């Protein structure tokens, strides 16, 4: 097996989550939005994997697809596979999915209000979760709820159990949501921009909390953000998304020290403080296109400083880049030891292999 094959088949030794050819489409009145267009990645046990990309690139739809939360007019297409702890999730009934969300996978959103009900006390909600998911009730549930609030660093936990979500600050509310997720004793946490609404100091505290919990509980985490700085802080491996596709995958060190895809390079230049524009921010010209048609070209080409003729005609496939195992990019500039003609040929061949594999 060549290195590039092994990289595309699996990117983790012992994945708890394997996503293959995930396609999530929204059929609206006037268009078909291919929000997630055939992405594949793994999350290993105890690992934090990041998904990074601009607004509209398909990050949240990826998370919601894994959680079984795509509703009409959205649909996860049947050729998609999401395997969690060896179990195929795309085949589950709504009821079975509910039990996966209750025990196996927890999710933390940007807005804690999505997870907390304003009319019940925080303690009430955690106890309810303990009852449903772990059959813990009464005094034991009160004790456990208190332990959970302590575990997420909420001081004066006993008193705070009796407070309502709106009596908590933004940072404390996000901690309470994390406590509520832990009440399900999950193996896997999906965090969708959990710190975006928080100021920088609080953001750093929440990231530290997640790292701590991960170490203590062996949690696997899928962490979604548009912020490369946050990715650098928290992720072990990273998937860079653009217009519904993954354009580069790498270990976090390799992504930052040796980025290959022109989009990744542009994203890295947009980190505040990294480069020299007066306001410290370099934005990428243009917008993420909404993908309506199957990819028959590179979707980044219109914004890409390196694009050439073939980029408008050939859909790029993942090939090995850089010097590290598991580092791939889908870009016609690679493999960079080949001539332009040979590179384009490589991608055309890989695409026909890929479409033949599909049932
Ligand atoms: N219910 C829906 N109906 C139609 N289109 C949708 C729906 N939900 C998402 N989309 C589309 O799917 C695409 C991806 O959206 P998604 O929310 O995943 O982006 P994102 O990467 O999470 O962006 P952000 O950083 O802004 O959260 C967008 O074009 C969005 O308009
Ligand atoms: Ni989002």
UniProtKB/TrEMBL annotation:
Transmembrane segments: none annotated. Residues 17-268 form the ABC transporter domain. It catalyses: Ni(2+)(out) + ATP + H2O = Ni(2+)(in) + ADP + phosphate + H(+). Its EC number is 7.2.2.11. GO terms for biological process: peptide transport. It is an enzyme of class 7 (translocase). Residues 335-359 are annotated as: Disordered. It is a peripheral membrane protein. It comes from the Archaea. One of its GO terms (molecular function) is ATP binding. GO terms for cellular component: plasma membrane. Residues 340-359 have a biased composition (Basic and acidic residues). The keyword Phosphoprotein does not apply. It is found in: Cell membrane. Keywords: ATP-binding, Cell membrane, Ion transport, Membrane, Nucleotide-binding, Translocase, Transport. The complex is composed of two ATP-binding proteins (NikD and NikE), two transmembrane proteins (NikB and NikC) and a solute-binding protein (NikA). This is Nickel import system ATP-binding protein NikD. It comes from Halonotius pteroides.
């Amino acid at each position: 097996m060549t290195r590039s094959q092994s990289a595309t088949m699996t990117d983790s030794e012992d994945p708890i989550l394997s996503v293959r050819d995930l396609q999530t489409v929204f059929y609206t009145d006037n268009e078909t939005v291919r929000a997630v267009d055939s992405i594949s990645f793994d999350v290993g046990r105890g690992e934090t994997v990041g998904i990074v990309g601009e607004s509209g690139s398909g990050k949240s739809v990826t998370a919601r697809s894994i959680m079984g939360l795509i509703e009409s007019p959205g649909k996860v297409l049947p050729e998609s596979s999401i395997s969690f702890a060896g179990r195929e999730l795309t085949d589950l009934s709504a009821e079975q999915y509910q039990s996966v969300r209750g025990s196996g996978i927890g999710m933390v959103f940007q807005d804690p209000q999505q997870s907390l009900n304003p009319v019940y006390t925080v303690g009430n909600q955690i106890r309810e979760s303990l009852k449903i998911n772990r059959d813990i009730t009464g005094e034991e549930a009160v004790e456990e709820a208190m332990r959970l609030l302590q575990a997420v660093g909420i001081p004066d936990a006993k008193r705070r159990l009796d407070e309502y979500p709106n009596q908590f600050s933004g940072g404390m509310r996000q901690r309470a949501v994390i406590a509520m997720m832990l009440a399900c004793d999950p193996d896997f946490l999906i965090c969708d921009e959990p710190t975006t609404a928080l100021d920088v100091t609080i953001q750093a505290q929440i990231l530290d909390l997640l790292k701590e919990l991960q170490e203590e509980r062996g949690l696997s985490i899928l962490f979604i953000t548009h912020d490369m700085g946050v990715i650098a802080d928290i992720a072990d491996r990273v998937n860079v998304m653009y217009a519904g596709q993954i354009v580069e995958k790498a270990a976090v060190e390799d992504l930052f020290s040796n980025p290959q895809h022109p989009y990744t390079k542009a994203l890295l230049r947009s980190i505040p403080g990294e480069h020299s524009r007066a306001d410290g921010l370099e934005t990428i010209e243009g917008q993420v296109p909404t993908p309506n048609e199957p990819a028959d070209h590179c979707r980044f080409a219109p914004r890409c400083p390196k694009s050439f003729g073939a980029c408008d005609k050939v859909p790029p496939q993942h090939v090995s880049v850089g010097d590290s195992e598991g580092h791939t990019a889908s870009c016609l500039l690679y493999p960079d030891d080949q001539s332009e003609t040979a590179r384009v040929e490589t991608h055309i061949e890989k695409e026909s292999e890929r479409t033949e594999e599909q049932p």
